[in-house]
Amino acid sequence: MTSAFSSSDTAVLERQADLIDVEQDISLEQIWGDAQRENCIEWIKKNNYKRVCLQFPDNYLKCSETIAASIRQAFSLADEVKTFILADTSYGSCCVDEIAAAHVDADSLVHFGNACRSKVSRLPVLYLYPQFDIDMQKFYEYLKSFIEHSTSHVVTVYLDIGYHQLLNEPINDDLKEKLINLKTKRLDLVTYCGDKFATITEDGQFAITSQGDYTKEVDEMNAERICLFIGSDNQRFFNLSLTTKAGKWFIYDVASGTGREKNPLTANYIRRRYFYIEKCKDAQTLGLIVATLTSNGYLDVVKHLQTMAKARGIKTQIISVGRINPAKLANFLEIDCFVLIGCPFNNMFESKEFYKPIVSVFEAEMALNPAWHMRYPESYVTDFKDLLPEGRSFLEFNANDINPEDVSLLTGRMRFNGTSNGNDVEAANLSALSEQQQAIATQARMEVMTTNTGLTFEDRTWRGLDPALGQTEPAKIEKGLSGISIRYTHD
Fold first, then answer.
1. What DSSP character marks residue 267?
2. How far apart are CA 161 and CA 255, in angstroms?
């Protein structure tokens, strides 16, 4: 009978950790090859940096000390170059942790692995990406077959981090001829999460361009194009496929040398996100989780969300707890829904393990801004800067357009939007009921945990330790025990 409510004694010892978005196993040669090492040391020498922070994701930590020692060996004692390893980032490993670097008074930072490349204002940063091996022959064979079935469409090939070295690879002559003969379409080769981009020219060569030129060459809102992602089905592909439009998406698995079609917008996912949007509309208290201190515009987003929530009579609380987990957010019982304000790679799209729903800034915008009502977005927005003025998905908020009364799609009850109208109408409706009907209407539901918006610190059963200052006599100073416990002469 007990086993139905608890696990066995050995389950804790045998359980394995579940990691979100697990990356492939990393070797030292992939993240600290000759090219990365020379680039890093030259960057430090050129700028005369003395206190260098090295930021690693969790799966890179096994190589961190070797890399730090390699950098120190490249400088003499007279150079006075010191390295510091950042092993526990404040928010996400993709974000540059300027806060932790400031604790050691660092003058520069080297960021390894996946990077969201959010704007950094306090420190100069060098991004070093891994370099994974790829069988070029298999890749060319698949690419030729892929192009033959897509001759009537624009094809965009995105390279995940670790494969950007393909831009420097010479093109196979057979493939070059195939590319030149394709007159009805264009093939774009783009690096994702990098600062270099490339397109295929008329003579079949890769032309390296800057990011500004890239935005002109590749139309990410072209719904007729076909996209191919070189990498794995990870968080980066998920974000990319949601934020850009395409007729079809394909993933080329480098390990197996095969590709498959992938639809990022499944019916179950869409229904779940719209369910969370409705939960955000029904919320009486919103928790604004600030999960970044480096992304440009996060304070403007906080102010914008507070303005929209106040116009609907919804309370807001600003929360900053570092890297979030269910245990941390479970302390805020009075909050009905959380809004995560972070970098594009820090969105919690799957938040089933949390007690309350977590929505992105875009989903909160769709719930609180009436300009988004009855409007289907062209693409999902993961970067909240696109929702600010001059952003590509900005829609102006007008409090006068808010419907004072509407129906919740979750509870089927009337939802009153406003600071005072809802309370007045609800009081008038209750006054028209009989005493017996009022008792039934106001009877509390049998729930495990209620969400009373008036819940304060004083209402909670646990208030912490009571110091009882001035109410107890001072204790006498006595000599304590020393040594180890088995040699104590008394209990």
1. H
2. 15
This prediction has a pTM of: 0.70
Do residues 418 and 403 make contact, with C-beta atoms less than 8 angstroms apart?
no
Q: Residue 83 pairs with which residues in a beta bridge?
A: 52
Within 260-393, where are the H helices?
A: 267-282, 298-311, 326-329, 361-368
Query: What 3-state DSSP class applies to 49?
Result: coil
Q: CA 109 → CA 60, 78, 79, 171, 193, distances in Å?
A: 16, 21, 17, 35, 18
Long-range CB contacts for residues 174-182, cutoff 8 Å, separation at least 24: 174/140, 174/144, 175/140, 175/143, 175/144, 175/204, 176/203, 176/204, 176/205, 177/204, 178/144, 178/147, 179/147, 179/204, 180/204, 182/147, 182/151
**Contact present, 94 and 236 (Cβ < 8 Å):** no
Q: Show the tokens assigned to 458.
A: 């004083």
d(CA 241, CA 232): 13
**CA–CA distance, 114 with 93 (Å, rounded to integer):** 7
Residues 377-416: tens digit of each pLDDT: 777 888 888 898 888 889 999 988 888 888 888 888 888 7
The whole-angstrom separation of Cα 488 and Cα 482 is 8
DSSP β-ladder status, 285-290 and 405-407: unpaired
